[in-house]
Amino acid sequence: CQLTRPARAEAGPILFSGLFGGSGSERIYALATDSSGNFYVGGETSSAELPVSDEALDQIINQGEGFVAKFDAAGELQWLTYLGGSGQDIVNDLALGPDALYVVGETSSRDFPGAPPVRGTQDAFVAALSLDGTSLYYSVLIGGSDYEAGYAISVENRQAFITGITYSIDLQPNAYLGEGDAFVTHLDAGGQVIYTRIIGGSSTDAGFDLAVLDGEVWAVGQTNSVNFPGMDLLGSQDGFAVRLDSSGGTRWVTYLGGSGEDNAQGVAIDEDGRAYITGVSGSEDFP
Predict the structure, then answer these.
(1) What whole-number distance in Å separates Cα of residue 154 and Cα of residue 121?
(2) In 3D, which of 167, 196, 170 has the Cα closest to residue 183?
(3) Residue 245 DSSP SS3
(4) Tens digits of per-residue pLDDT, 168-226?
(5) 11 SS3 class
(6) Distance (Å, rounded) from C-alpha 214 to C-alpha 194?
(7) Partners of 154 in the beta sheet?
(8) N or C: which end of the chain has fewer CB within 10 A?
């Protein structure tokens, strides 16, 4: 379960590499680093014998379980904790704050650590963990009567911003728009919801990533909705980018795509508010 240095590191730029896992299957979906070169990873596992730390927050695996681990700059495991309950749990993204590690994902567990039971078939979750993986500052479920998943998280001033997909007509009253909507939720430093914004049209829409600057949010994803607000669908599926102000109101919306299938999967912003977006295109006429 340890990462290892290659025998001939001088042959290339790789400083260390290796396999991490147990007798089941593992997937790592997220990575965050600190200024000392330590890094945190998160994902899902079905292995009961991962090297869980003695003081870990969650030491028990049930069905498929989320996990979070910290490695030092040399690739040595520092700690590992499972994260989940009796249902299916997945860690999809991580964000590192000054004194906490923020985790977002999806859960069907009615006993997810520190949280009330899920409301529907599955909820998005947000958890703030201590940097040693032993304690939980808060745990919040974002969900309605149907299905939610949290795909990305960004943190600014100890406040968390999350995006994902919802299929619930009651996640935000009178706001559900179609067969599945993107959402953006803003939590304060204590994990209380400041706002939830539903984004979409009459078909399926999902938010895949977001970035934050001075309380404003840039969110990207995909839409199949011909009536997605502020844009005209060019193909069967387009990427979208939306900028929200500090209260969750729309600053602007734009599409990313052509006549084929396109989606936007990642976004970063610089200090001047310029957005850099990546994704996938199946359009021969992508602009």
Answers:
(1) 25
(2) 196
(3) coil
(4) 998 887 677 778 999 999 999 999 999 999 999 889 999 999 999 999 999 999 999 98
(5) helix
(6) 15
(7) 161
(8) C
Please state, in angstroms and rounded to a whole number, the distance separating the CA atoms of residues 147 and 273. 33
Least confident span in 4-8, 128-132, 226-230: 4-8
Kindly state the tokens that stand for 80: 């590992």
- Give the Cα separation of 177 and 204 in Å (integer): 9
C-beta atoms surrounding 230 within 10 Å: 12
| Strand 250-256 relative to strand 136-142, pairing | unpaired
CA atoms within 13 A on the CB side of 252: 4
CA distance 162 to 217: 10
- In the structure, how many helices (H) and strands (E) does the chain have? 0, 18
Strand partners, 185: 162, 196
Q: What is the spatial distance between Cα 49 and Cα 40, in angstroms, rounded to a whole number? A: 19
How remote is the C-alpha of 177 from its chain's centroid?
22
Dihedral of CA 275/186/36/22: which sign? negative
Q: For the chain, what is the radius of gyration of the CA atoms?
A: 19
pLDDT digits (tens, 9 = 90+) for 67-121: 999 999 999 999 999 999 999 999 999 999 999 999 999 999 999 999 999 999 9
Judge whether residue 11 has pLDDT over 70: no
pTM of the model: 0.92
Question: What is the distance between the alpha carbons of residues 257 and 248, in angstroms, rounded to a whole number?
Answer: 25
| Strands (E) located in 34-135 | 39-45, 65-71, 77-83, 89-96, 101-107, 123-129
Q: What is d(CA 107, CA 124) in angstroms, rounded to the nearest whole number?
A: 6
Task: Express each pLDDT in 231-254 by its tens digit.
Answer: 888 888 999 999 999 999 999 999
Phi, psi of 9 (to 5 degrees): -60, -25
